[in-house]
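ok new one. same drill as before - structure tokens go in, u give me an amino acid for every spot. 609 of them this time. try not to just spam alanines like last time pls lmao
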């Protein structure tokens, strides 16, 4: 019964694990697609910003419009932006990137036009999907208002994005036969959905997700029955922090759990079979108990068999008396310890064990002799006659007198674990380092930060942190390739290793092109000095980066923060948050600079705000 219950609990846990894994996959996908949507709308925002600035600077006179029309005519078609349009205050077409002649047409009835005419908001307005009048395809509009010199409404600058652009991009991702990816406005209108199935423009504002969107966090998992196709789905939604859009990535719950169901049925059948087998074994055990006395006699006869096996075993076999002295040692002792069996017999079994491990071994053997345990396994260091210190793994089991049943000794089976232990140490080192830069990885950094935070709080000592980001590193990868990008990151890592001069300092790769330098027992001035040395060392590297003006070489934006005395209710996340805000300020201030808790240190060649 216990096995069946435990098996059922295990299967349920396995089901939850499958769902959790699917949630993680959907979360990663939703975050990536939200970034793609943000990048797309940011591109339209940039085009509109330039266009509105030109219109408000030069007006809408014939010469100005002709200049804009020439620019739009020469504009190359892009996958993301389908068309660019300019309308006056009446909705009449002034300029367009499309070859179609829109003379005489008015778009004053469009939602975006009416919005800008009624609202003085100068920001970009992302409208609901509409069908293009010249082409008939679904498009998403992004528009901005421009004004006359007196501030009155002068017209609208418009960019359009093909819904098909998002559909083609979403179609590259495998979310299962019944999965879907949807981009919607924050008020519940479907902007794009893959598979499409005619859902573009559908109003889902009454769905629970959109009803409670303001109350719920900006990102999270969500289980629901789709109002579009009735499929029970596991999803993850991500609300853009920059634009009023939301991405929902979903998988069919049945698709996610199908492999688990198939395996669970098989495993449960096996468990039931084993449970039945155990029941039969229990009946047989009753019969075997009656044969115990005969088996005790047989044990004496098997003593010779034991010796025969021990003599030919690759492991070292010992019999140890209750007084702790060796009664028997197999020939493998020569290979494992460097001592012949006759040299070990009648000596202490604890001789040669490392002083640090000795109390633990003594405690284990004492527990066996006192009947607290029947068997044990322990790993410890001991001395080899020629090789010095080695690691030994020993399995211990008590032996009992056939007549009285009292414990009369211990059988120890030992093997050399030195090579295995060395491999474990190497794997442990790899688990805390970054494979590319050999710096500490994010997990090890988090562990060290918590340790140093607790120590600083106990001792009232300062703790400083530098967060660094390679400026325009994506451009660097695009320009010079990922191999050059990896070499660049390794060069930056070497600089950080040189600056982490004290044993407690921790240089870590915090994320893609982000690095962190943890400086225990360092005040704000010391932290700033280290940041300055890092900045100077990076400049001295002189790594060419033509897409990083004005220096045209690789530079770092650095944010630093110092916690002078950690409050009891504070945690280390506050230090990371402060450094991250400083890093953001360094980027906003023009990059290639160091920002320390409200102050900015700009470096030669950096752009001053």
């Amino acid at each position: 019964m216990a096995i069946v219950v435990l098996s059922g609990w295990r299967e349920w846990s396995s089901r939850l694990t499958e769902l959790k894994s699917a949630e993680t996959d959907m979360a990663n996908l939703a975050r990536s697609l939200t970034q793609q949507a943000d990048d797309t709308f940011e591109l339209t925002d940039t085009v509109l910003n330039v266009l509105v600035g030109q219109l408000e600077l030069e007006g809408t006179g014939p010469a100005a419009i002709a200049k804009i029309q020439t620019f739009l005519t020469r504009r190359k078609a892009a996958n993301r932006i389908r068309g660019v349009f300019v309308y006056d205050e009446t909705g009449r077409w002034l300029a367009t990137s499309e070859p179609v002649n829109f003379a005489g047409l008015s778009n004053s009835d469009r939602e975006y036009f009416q919005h800008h005419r009624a609202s003085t908001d100068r920001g970009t307005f992302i409208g609901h999907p509409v069908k293009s009048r010249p082409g008939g395809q679904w498009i998403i509009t992004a528009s901005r208002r421009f004004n006359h010199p007196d501030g009155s409404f002068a017209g609208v600058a418009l960019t359009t994005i093909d819904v098909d652009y998002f559909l083609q991009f979403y179609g590259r991702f495998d979310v299962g036969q019944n999965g879907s990816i949807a981009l919607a406005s924050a008020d519940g209108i479907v902007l794009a959905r893959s598979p499409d199935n005619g859902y573009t423009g559908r109003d889902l504002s009454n769905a629970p997700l959109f009803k409670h969107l303001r109350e719920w966090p900006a990102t999270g998992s969500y289980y629901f029955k789709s109002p579009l196709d009735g499929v029970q789905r596991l999803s993850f939604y991500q609300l853009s922090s920059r634009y009023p859009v939301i991405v929902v990535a979903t998988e069919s719950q049945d698709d996610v759990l199908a492999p688990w169901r198939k395996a669970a049925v098989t495993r449960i059948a096996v468990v039931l079979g084993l449970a039945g087998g155990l029941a039969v074994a229990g009946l047989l055990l009753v019969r075997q108990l009656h044969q115990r006395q005969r088996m005790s006699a047989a044990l004496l006869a098997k003593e010779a068999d034991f010796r025969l096996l021990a003599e030919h075993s690759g492991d070292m076999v010992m019999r140890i008396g209750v007084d702790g002295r060796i009664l028997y040692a197999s020939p493998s002792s020569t290979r494992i310890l460097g001592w012949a069996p006759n040299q070990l017999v009648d000596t202490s079994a604890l001789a040669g064990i490392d002083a640090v491990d000795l109390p633990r071994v003594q405690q284990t053997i004492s527990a066996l002799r006192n009947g607290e345990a029947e068997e044990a396994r322990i790993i410890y260091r001991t001395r080899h006659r020629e090789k010095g210190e080695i690691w030994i793994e020993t399995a211990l089991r008590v032996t009992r007198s056939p007549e009285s049943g009292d414990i009369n000794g211990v059988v120890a089976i030992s093997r050399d674990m030195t090579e295995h232990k060395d491999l474990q140490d190497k794997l442990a080192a790899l688990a805390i380092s970054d494979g590319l830069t050999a710096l500490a990885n994010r997990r090890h950094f988090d562990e060290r930060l918590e340790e140093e935070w607790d120590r600083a709080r106990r001792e009232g000592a300062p703790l400083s942190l530098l967060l660094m980001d390679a400026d325009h590193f994506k451009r660097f990868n695009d320009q010079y390739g990922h191999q050059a990008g990896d070499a660049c990151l390794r060069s930056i890592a070497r600089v950080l290793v040189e600056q982490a001069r004290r044993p407690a300092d921790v240089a870590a790769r915090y994320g893609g092109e982000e690095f962190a330098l943890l400086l225990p027992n360092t005040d704000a001035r010391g932290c700033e000095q280290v940041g300055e040395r890092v900045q100077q060392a990076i400049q001295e590297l002189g790594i060419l980066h033509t897409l990083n003006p004005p220096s045209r070489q690789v530079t770092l934006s650095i944010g630093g923060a110092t916690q002078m005395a950690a409050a009891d209710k504070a945690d280390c996340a506050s230090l990371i948050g402060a450094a991250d805000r400083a890093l953001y300020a360094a980027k906003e201030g023009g990059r290639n600079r160091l920002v320390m808790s409200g102050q900015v240190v700009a470096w030669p060649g950096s752009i001053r705000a």
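The longest strand covers residues 388-400. and btw The CA atoms of residues 26 and 102 lie 43 Å apart.
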